[in-house]
Design a protein that fits this description.
- This protein is an alpha/beta fold.
- The chain has a single domain (6-206), classed as 2,3-Dihydroxybiphenyl 1,2-Dioxygenase, domain 1 (Roll), CATH 3.10.180.
- Helix content is 23%, strand content 39%.
- It has 5 helices and 15 strands.
- It has an 8-stranded mixed β-sheet. A 5-stranded mixed β-sheet has the order 2-1-13-15-14. It has a two-stranded antiparallel ribbon with strand order 3-12.
- Helix 1 (14-24) packs antiparallel against helix 2.
- The longest helix is centred in the first third of the chain and has 13 residues, at 55-67.
- This is Glyoxalase.
- InterPro entries: Glyas_Bleomycin-R_OHBP_Dase (IPR029068).
- It comes from Amycolatopsis lurida NRRL 2430.
Length: 207
């Protein structure tokens, strides 16, 4: 089975980006950074999500992100699905912090349960087929709307969503051009139907 070892984000200032992600979210080896000056305008076609156990934790992480330099693009609110909001990191990446819980069960802590990479794709069914052929197993599937893949022991989960729907969920316009400014570290290198690049991870080269 294919896997995601880590996510590589491209940033103009990698030192500043590393300070932000360490300070705001406490991210470690699951997130890598590298320098890039490739042009990217508007929505980059993906979001990264931190799922948490309760609303207070979502607020704590959002507040920490804002204090570290992020911009709120969708204030945290309750919804029929739970509670959450979205911020844009200083490097331009969009992060959603959310929980399916609607009530707090303990004191707020700056901790998350999982990282989810949501790719905004043109055709969910076609991309689902593509990824299955490249070694990913489907965990959840809602027709041509949403697909979530099994993550196994991978530190990052992968899901697919229609591009316009993903942009709406994040609170931004779906229009965008240029580089995605992201690479996915997995078992083998390839480029998917929407131009997202997978690179061979360190785990694969060591096996």
């Amino acid at each position: 089975m294919n896997f995601i070892d880590a996510i590589t984000l491209e940033a103009a200032d990698t030192e500043a980006a590393e300070r932000f992600y360490t300070t705001a979210f406490g991210l470690g080896s699951e997130l890598r950074l590298r320098a890039s000056q490739e042009p990217s305008t508007g929505f980059r076609g993906y979001t990264l999500s931190l799922t948490v156990s309760q609303p207070a934790n979502a607020d704590a992480l959002i507040d920490a992100a804002v204090a570290a330099g992020a911009t709120v693009i969708k204030p945290a609110t309750k919804s029929m699905w739970g509670y959450g909001g979205a911020v844009r990191a200083p490097d331009g990446a969009i992060w959603k912090i959310a929980t399916s819980a609607k009530k707090n069960t303990g004191p707020a802590v700056r901790e998350f349960d999982a990282i989810v990479l949501l790719l905004g794709v043109a055709d969910v069914a076609a991309s689902k087929k593509f990824y299955v052929e490249h070694g990913l197993a489907v965990g959840k599937s809602f027709g041509r709307v949403y697909v979530e893949f099994e993550s196994g022991s991978s530190p990052v989960k992968l899901a697919l969503y229609k591009r316009k729907a993903l942009a709406k969920d994040a609170g931004v316009s779906p229009e965008g051009t240029g580089s995605h400014r992201i690479a996915i570290c997995g078992a083998a290198p390839f480029t998917d139907l929407d131009g997202f690049v997978w690179e061979t991870s360190t785990l694969a080269t060591q096996s």
